[in-house]
Write a structure and sequence with these properties.
- There is one protein chain.
- It contains six helices and three strands, in the order H-E-H-H-E-E-H-H-H.
- With 152 residues, the chain is mainly α.
- The protein folds into two domains: 70 residues, Orthogonal Bundle (Arc Repressor Mutant, subunit A); 69 residues, no CATH class.
């Protein structure tokens, strides 16, 4: 399936079919390619399940995107929501942990009086890890669903 999408011509065909269904000669004319070349690309896209042939008994055979083909242009909102929610939760945990560093000190035991609170390694990790995870999740969110998307 992935090798089908490596061809720039096939990507261009998918983008054309995103606009509306078309016939072979129309696609060939818009891409300035021969009909036989376009036919071969259409065959590979059809085998991969990205487009379907509409033969309703009339003179022309139309091609249009399947649900699989449409999904290339419109990523799953479930994945987007899950990824964005996880990033927000991680960020909130990190911010919550940071708030512990700036709280007024809690009355300490007599043995601790006069000493300043110094965050230990575990405290620092409990701040860095959630914020790091949220940054990575936001990065992946925008990488997968942002303007860098291949089919826009």
């Amino acid at each position: 399936m992935e090798e089908v999408l490596l061809s720039k011509t096939r990507i261009r065909i998918l983008k054309l079919l995103r606009e509306r269904k078309m016939i072979l000669s129309e696609i060939a004319k818009k891409l300035k390619l021969s009909k036989s070349t376009v036919h071969e690309h259409l065959r590979k896209l059809e085998e991969a399940g990205f487009i379907k042939r509409i033969d309703d008994g009339h003179k022309w055979i139309y091609f249009e995107l399947t649900e699989k083909g449409i999904s290339l242009f419109h990523p799953s909102t479930k994945r987007m929501t899950l990824l964005f929610t996880l990033a927000l939760i991680s960020l909130c945990i990190g911010v919550y942990q940071i708030s512990f560093l700036f709280r007024p000190e809690v009355p300490l035991a007599k043995s601790m009086e006069g000493r300043r609170f110094v965050p230990n390694f575990i405290t620092i990790l409990s701040i860095v890890i959630p914020i790091g995870i949220s940054v990575l999740l936001f990065f992946f969110f925008f990488k997968l669903f942002g303007k860098t998307e291949r089919f826009r």
